[in-house]
Design brief:
mainly alpha; 11 helices; Rhomboid-like fold; two-stranded antiparallel sheet; single chain
């Protein structure tokens, strides 16, 4: 668990119990697009109001699973910006496409978090109902298509489908802006398996370099010596992985003859 994920979970749960005890408070904190002038705070506070326990449960479950890794990747400040901008995107789409319905829930912000997770780790498996593995990128695409269809057709009443789409749109826009501004900062974080594989690869590279540097250059023919020196210099300056398969094979051949 990361700091802002914990705070968001606590804030949503606390507001849920407060609004359950005082239903009028829920209406006061909700987003009413047509009444925005009388309740302008609703564009932010609606993200913390939930219609029922299951509405809260599934939104918090998504934050719990996807939020910590994303917060570690982005940093707390950028994670929080992504979260609230996605929620504001959900509010904006509600204004544009469903202005007559009250909107509550963290779904817009959560959908932005989910999209950001898929942006950095598109092939990460997400287990639906804890059983069915789906890559993050495909889950986002399916959710976007379902939300668009349901929003246009009017099916799934009581669900703010356009708020979901607004969360996707705002989250993606924020990530693209950040990527353009800080390109080097936004490289995807490797998974534990990728880190282990990379670590093993670096260890193998160091061992290979040690063997190649032990090749007795003074015993080689002049032409072979020049070629070995050239490839070794390339490995030292640009890294072992910059070598072609033929160059590696040549060094291995001379190292084995040592």
């Amino acid at each position: 668990m990361t700091p802002w994920v914990v705070r968001l979970l606590i804030a949503n749960v606390v507001v849920f119990f407060l609004t359950a005890a005082q239903p009028r408070l829920g209406a006061l904190l909700a987003l009413w697009p047509m009444g925005i002038l009388s309740q302008p705070w609703g564009v932010v506070t609606y993200m913390f109001v939930h219609a029922n326990f299951w509405h809260l449960f599934f939104n918090m479950l998504a934050i719990f699973f996807f939020g910590p890794r994303l917060e570690m990747q982005l940093g707390g400040k950028s994670f929080l910006k992504l979260y609230f901008l996605s929620g504001l995107g959900g509010a904006a789409f509600s204004f544009l496409f469903a202005p007559h319905a009250a909107v509550v829930g963290a779904s817009g912000a959560v959908f932005g978090v989910l999209l950001a997770f898929a942006y950095f780790w598109p092939k990460a498996p997400i287990y639906i109902w804890g059983v069915l593995p789906v890559q993050a990128r495909w889950l986002v695409i399916v959710l976007a298509v379902v939300s668009l269809y349901a929003g246009i057709s009017g099916s799934g009443t009581g669900i703010a489908h356009f708020a979901h789409l607004g969360g996707f749109a705002a989250g993606y826009a924020y990530l693209r802006w950040q990527r353009r501004k800080y390109f080097q900062q936004w490289r995807p974080m490797p998974t534990p398996k990728e880190r282990l594989t990379d670590s093993a690869g670096r260890s193998d590279d160091r061992e290979a370099l040690r063997r190649w540097k032990a090749i007795p250059l003074d015993k080689l023919h002049e032409l072979n010596r020049d070629e070995v020196e050239r490839v070794l210099e390339k490995a030292l300056s640009s890294g072992v992985r910059s070598l072609t398969p033929d160059e590696r094979a040549m060094l291995e051949r001379f190292a084995q003859n040592n």
